[in-house]
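Model it.
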Amino acid sequence: MEAAPAAPHDPAETELIVNAPEQMQELGRRLAKLLRPGDLVMLSGELGAGKTTLTRGLGEGLGVRGAVTSPTFVIARVHPSLVDGPPLVHVDAYRLSGGLDEMEDLDLDVSLPDSVIVVEWGEGKVEELTDDRLLVVIHRTVGDTTDEVRHVTLTGLGERWADVDLGVLSA
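Modeled.
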């Protein structure tokens, strides 16, 4: 993992270059150290970009039970903590067409204060849950390629992330 070419440093945003799936998983483990109960993490990126791989690393870093796999068909999975930390709620909103109304059935607003909630494909669907969220955008080369390079942009939104130095993730 390496920092992308430098823009002026903003503690609420950082850009990284990830060169392999193992590095994406390691990024998740490192990111887990910055997370706490009540955090909403929104993951965005093309199919195969590494959203679930990043979440697998988050699960490892948070010390949760169960294999973290894509919840595409069940929509959401709860992974309880094995180390007295927050549970991980992993949501895949890809098949959900509605906004927060359709998401309400998942009761994410009830889970949010005590959990770390990670939502893949959540743009336009979960922003109303909280003003404080971490947006992770993963860009990859699309098409017929074996290129494993990913450009990851992490942006902390709201008061919760104002003083968090996301640049520590590139160290």
